[in-house]
Amino acid sequence: MAQVYGRVALIGLGLIASSLFWAIKRGGLAGEVTGYARSDETRATAREIGLCDRVCDTAAEAVAGADLVVLCVPVGVMGAVAAEIAPHLAPGATVTDVGSVKADVIAQVGPHLPKGVHFIPGHPLAGTEHSGPRSGFAELFDNRWCLLVPVEGTDVEAIARLRALWEGAGAHVEEMDAEHHDLVLAVTSHAPHLIAYTMVGVADDLRRVTDSEVIKYSAAGFRDFTRIAASDPTMWRDVFLTNKDATLEILGRFTEELFALQRAIRTGDGDHLHAYFTRTRAIRRGIIEAGQDTDAPNFGRGGPKP
Amino acid sequence: MAQVYGRVALIGLGLIASSLFWAIKRGGLAGEVTGYARSDETRATAREIGLCDRVCDTAAEAVAGADLVVLCVPVGVMGAVAAEIAPHLAPGATVTDVGSVKADVIAQVGPHLPKGVHFIPGHPLAGTEHSGPRSGFAELFDNRWCLLVPVEGTDVEAIARLRALWEGAGAHVEEMDAEHHDLVLAVTSHAPHLIAYTMVGVADDLRRVTDSEVIKYSAAGFRDFTRIAASDPTMWRDVFLTNKDATLEILGRFTEELFALQRAIRTGDGDHLHAYFTRTRAIRRGIIEAGQDTDAPNFGRGGPKP
């Protein structure tokens, strides 16, 4: 694959940044990748495992001379990080991010960036329940979507180049406006995560059912919730606080629907339940046909030998 | 492995029955396995794929002379099936079931069974989102739990024999009383399933976010819900109708907790959210340490190469 950028700077070295680094190396997509993380420990780990060609002790040093700067920090600190790096950005550089919320990030980051720097917010829809510099792997973005949310008037050439980087990392790229992004993600990600966190918390609270029983007997459905609810707490706190309106709207719809199903259970309305459960099955088929999940039972864990 | 029963009859030939058949064959746990399903199509499929040594056209024929009869039908029809087979049961035979609810099944089935027949309700905590006679595989119960819920005064020898069958099929066996079972399962399985069904239904309803977007961008969390919500509609309708009280109690707790988190989002209480999300992470570690799930990211789908 051809080199897309001369120098890429990764600010924040968690799951997404480390995966992007390995994907860039796999594809030969950049001449040099610099990296910075606020924590001494993370920088030491990065140096130990060869994460980034050069790990810098300040964000300013990492972004100096970079053609592309990727902000890979929790959504809540994007603005502060942008303020910190702004004076050190090279003219003509592109700044992007990987945050799960877009309208709020645009409001936080945009005002800090100097004229002549291209700001193209982004969001790769990929992740696992693991976090930190050791959790990354080159295949994370393969066949996943990366959404770009360029603000009006953004340089077309700069967008094409960022798109090429993500495509080189294995992703399909699509453009979308920020408000629509935030609503789509509230449905496909933010509300499901809050619901999973809630259910796991409820199970933990129940004193009559001991923790050890909840854990032993988790294979009956609950364990899938626990995987989602094991994601990074700081990242998710920031997501909910910055995509408040869309998340609360979807949760309102969810509660309304849950109450209707609870009433059907209470009144013994089996037809209502059966019809509802039949409808939801079809969505699963759509996801498998779209190549966004495996049809192997239980995601392939402990399934039949092929 | 040693033969445990001379003849086993499977009534109903879906995921659990077909997996049990293949596990019995793998372990040499029975001399002959007969099978019956109400639908002509299912019986024809079973004959085609060699599911059961003998597929019978009536339940009466299947249970005649069987040492063990396993009811593998939806919870809602357990009573009707018990009434149908009762006159044909061999003296000294054991009847068990695999239903996800126990108190209601005991109330439905118990009264029909003649004296001299041992009734030992059971529940293997294993499954996938697939259903039907083709979905079974011998490894389904390996390292999973099977809960036995014997009523008071049940023959100890009969319990030991049924335990040996499930252990031969790969499961760990534990005994529990019916009410406790139904509460534990409401937490670990029934409430999570209803919640997943609800969230998938909500996503399907949203017209501003098109179906195709929900499907395309599902990898961000939602797709795990769709797997759970793809389970058999009839089975789950019956579970909710027959474990009504425990399920509604847990859903009540869930709603209470969800409202508290929604309020934290609305008021911007990040500390509350962060503390909650940190606590739920610990439960995930417990499940992995207990060997009930894999630590591979995303359940191993698309993760790093080992």
Automatic annotation (TrEMBL), chains A, B:
Family per similarity comment: Belongs to the prephenate/arogenate dehydrogenase family.
UniProt GO BP: tyrosine biosynthetic process
Key words of the record: Amino-acid biosynthesis, Aromatic amino acid biosynthesis, NAD, Oxidoreductase, Tyrosine biosynthesis
Reactions listed under catalytic activity: prephenate + NAD(+) = 3-(4-hydroxyphenyl)pyruvate + CO2 + NADH
InterPro entries: 6-PGluconate_DH-like_C_sf, NAD(P)-bd_dom_sf, PDH_C, PDH_N, Preph/Arog_dehydrog, Prephen_DH
Single GO molecular function: prephenate dehydrogenase (NADP+) activity
Domain Prephenate/arogenate dehydrogenase: 6-295
Pathway(s) it belongs to: Amino-acid biosynthesis; L-tyrosine biosynthesis; (4-hydroxyphenyl)pyruvate from prephenate (NAD(+) route): step 1/1
Protein name: prephenate dehydrogenase
Pfam families reported in the protein's UniProt record: PDH_C (PF20463), PDH_N (PF02153)
UniProt-listed Enzyme Commission number(s): 1.3.1.12
Enzyme class: oxidoreductase
Provenance organism: Sulfitobacter delicatus
Taxonomic placement: Bacteria, Pseudomonadati, Pseudomonadota, Alphaproteobacteria, Rhodobacterales
